[in-house]
Amino acid sequence: MRFLTADYLFPLHTNPIKNGVLQISDDGQVIAIFKNRREVNQDKLEIFNGILCPGFVNAHCHLELSHLKGRAEKGQGFLEFSKTISLRDNYSVAAKKQAIENAEQEMITNGIVGVGDICNKIDTLQKKQKENLKYYNFIETFGVDLNKVDTVFNQAIELRNKFRFAGQKASIVPHAPYSVPPVLMKKINNFFDDTDELLTIHMQETNEENQLFEYKKGAFFDWLNSMNACLSIWGSRNKPTDILQELSGKKILLVHNTFAKKEDITENYYCTCPRANLFIENNLPDYSIFDTDKLCVGTDSLASNNSLSILDEIIVIQNNSNFDLNTLLKISSKNGAKALGFEQLGTFEKGKVPGVNLIKNMDGLKFTPDCFIQII
Questions:
Q1: How far is residue 72 from each of residues 68, 69, 301, measured CA to CA in Å?
Q2: Phi/psi of residue 62, nearest 5 degrees
Q3: Inter-CA distances, 191 with 6, 60, 163, 188, 209, Å
Q4: Sheet holding 356-360, edge to edge
Q5: Are 237 and 214 in contact (CB under 8 A)?
Q6: How many CA atoms, within 13 angstroms, populate the side-chain half-sphere of residue 139?
């Protein structure tokens, strides 16, 4: 039994508590919260400087791309960045395995306890079976050639089944509005079953994506035409968010939203990956347009980021929004856990096992560049 206290306790399902005390079992299960240290035997208190909050949830990651760290050039735009991703198979199995190992350990060290992970390969499954972290695996599909849609979808089913048979949460999802034609979207929508909880999709990551649908021209238009992409991708959609109409009644997590406008926002969940957005497009979303009860945070991949740290991400958000500390922590933990269906994570509610992060070197209730996490 442990009694943990710090300058502030952030349970996230209730208001922050100055000098609050968190009681947890030896295996990390929340037993109780005390609003006053005097309610607890003083000899049992573990007193820390800083703030205590639940473990973080990385709502969007590409763990299988970890071996591409440092390979892409910063600020060259999405199309140039995608050329680096196309080289993903030009590496040994050993190099990929070691990069995945290192990346997962980095997330653990940075206080992450749950991950929404994009999967195109089986590369990460062996590591995930060790259950060091909770994963929701999103089996990503894309296919601009109508003649290959059946092949693409059948491969996704096979990969999803491998993850599920290994005891992992896994759902087949679309990559992005510009890479999934309506016929493939229909297959994804119809294949959603009782085990599926969430669909995720990259959305408005680059302004060229908006131009493709709104004006039927631009860099994406030329790029897709060079691959003989089917016209139905943009022919029946006048903006990227039109694709949501093809996913009836599903819980959806929209990722990036770098170039989203207020009128684009729906009642779905949203995920921001600010450091990746700065790396690829040198832009950030307008954070004032989001419902902070539905906003989550992700790191994207090490191909587009130099760390897998949610703390690094929310420091960027703090510096580019008017969010207070409780909101920043809520979007870092509670919202992601709720979106991904990780019922045991996200808050210090009784019975949960959410992990405990101690964040040190704060400036009152503000993050500083020197903040760091200690796992409790």
A1: 8, 8, 11
A2: -125, 80
A3: 47, 22, 16, 5, 27
A4: 17-18, 8-9, 51-54, 356-360, 372-375
A5: no
A6: 25
Closest alpha carbon to 22 in 347, 365, 374, 367: 347
Decide if 354 is inside a domain: no
For 352, phi then psi, to 5°, come to -80, 160
Nearest to 64 by CA among 132, 135, 117, 114: 117
Q: Give me the helix-helix angle, 149-165 and 182-191, nearest 10°.
A: 30
Contact 323, 292 (CB under 8 A): yes
CB-based contacts of 372-375 (< 8 A; 24+ apart in sequence): 372/311, 373/109, 373/110, 373/111, 373/311, 374/48, 374/50, 375/108, 375/109, 375/111
Claim to verify: residue 7 and residue 91 sit in the same structural domain: no
In three-state form (DSSP H/G/I as H, E/B as E, the rest C), the secondary structure along 250-269 is CCEEEEECCCCCHHHCCCCE
Tens digit of pLDDT for each residue in 149-191?
A: 999 999 999 999 999 999 999 999 999 999 999 999 999 999 9
Tell me: do 129 and 263 sit in the same domain.
yes
Whether residue 47 is found in the same domain as residue 62: no
Q: What is the CATH number of the domain that holds 147?
A: 3.20.20.140
Tell whether 155 and 201 lie within a shared domain: yes
85: left (phi over 0), alpha (psi -120 to 50) or beta: alpha
Q: Which residues contact 362 (CB under 8 A, 6 or more apart)?
A: 7, 50, 51, 368, 371
* Distances, alpha carbon 152 to alpha carbons 24, 127, 155, 187, in Å: 46, 25, 5, 11
Give the separation between CA 68 and CA 27, rounded to whole angstroms: 36
Q: Is residue 213 part of a domain?
A: yes
State how many domains the chain has: 2
What's the pLDDT at 102?
98
Which range of residues forms the domain containing residue 229? 56-345
Distances (CA, A) of 167 to 45, 131, 136, 161, 342: 38, 10, 11, 10, 15
Structure confidence by residue, pLDDT tens digits, 245-280: 998 889 999 999 999 999 999 999 999 999 999 999
Statement: residue 84 has pLDDT above 90: no
